[in-house]
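Q: Give me a protein?
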Amino acid sequence: MTQANSINSDSPKRIIPVFPIDSADSSGVSTRPRASSNSGAMEETTTYLYKAAQKIYPRSVLGKFAKLRWFIVLLTQMVFYGLPWIEWGTRQAVLFDLGARRFYLFGILLYPQDFIYLTGLLIVCALTLFLFTAVAGRLWCGYACPQTVYSEIFMWIERRIEGDRSSRIRLDQRAMSFEKFAKKTLKHILWISLALWTGFTFVGYFTPIHQLSRELISIQLGPWELFWVCFYGFATYGNAGYMREQVCMYMCPYARFQSAMFDPDTLIVSYDAARGEPRGGRSKHDDPSQLSLGGCVDCTLCVQVCPTGIDIREGLQYECIGCGACADVCDTVMEKMGYQKGLVRYVTENALVNGLTNAQMWARILRPRVLVYTSILSVLIFIIGTSLWFRVPLKFDIVRDRGSLARITDHGTLENVYRIQVMNVTEQDQTYRLSVSGIDGIYIHSNTTIKVAAAQSSWIPVQVDIPYEGAVQGSYKISFELTPINQNYKVSEASVFIVPH
């Protein structure tokens, strides 16, 4: 809240909220007429309801964390763009066929009934995020989050065309010219092309990408495929090209609750104030101790390289994504000045306050909280992996025919009718043999051999008979067994046989 021109500090004040609807100035704040400046008159106060956004021009940086970040960018994008093109036999290796309700993961075929595996995967991802956050803060945000990854790629394109930070600032401040128009146009063409290719690749995980490519080349792309390609392309273009840090600062919920997972032994990017303060400029040949200065030369490069535009020297802030760019550029400056590196570094709060060595710091990082997360995560991964390894590639379900509970056949037996669903969870045609047990003399009157095509399911009516003579009224438990021919496993399913009055 800022005051209008004050005439008398003792005069009463009237607060006037200002909405950005009238004659807004360049800062995004509208203006209203002020009250009379006569003595004793009410003084108006202007309330700003939002902060005008300032465009951030991140400076390029070199260093070990920048190299690590680009390595992860290249690795993740090789997987994302390349995975849909990998073939597994006669099909796409990774395909989520929503229309057929089949999900292919290399040699694994899953159905909607296997939702438990998706649940387990989401739990593993959540625990992994908790573990990484407890150990080293926002590692996911700084290195592997799609928002960070595509922002890095889009900024790399921008730097190649418009130059580094100072060149981009001058270009934006310059009046429109042919050179500026050409550079901006080329940049946006490349951005849009990359964004659309990203959307096309994403849709390729749900529609076979070779089929999608043929439809695209022949301009016969279906309306839904076209919609989702454009939708995800637009989202990539908008988030990575324009919104960038706004997504991390205002839209991402992780930035808001991350502090709940931090503690004094969490590794975070920190400024060593004890070494750096008081900060100030000096020559490379000056002795800081004689100038009563700390190690920080106040070059502000740590601010210039920050993708969210914060000053790490002000302490931990929720906007910090933990990318380490400020640590890289600070080490470069320290090396040029001949000072010890690490003025800005990954370090824990306890290590800074208590002056712990690296060995002592890492010993405290491997604390019970981290070990518990690691243990639970390892057990879950083992359980899910074991379940998938020993998973029976057959699903079997039985439904009694509600239209006919029981009947006496022409050949003197009592018959119940069932409908059996057999799902072949393999990619080869299978033949199964069906049997039943649970009552003396029970047998299957219909065909006991069932053939199901690869990755298909079939509903088969089955008549089950028992001798009518001596049958006592009641409901009897029976068991159906389905055994693949030339396989060494079987699947059992319980049901009941009804003997009426």
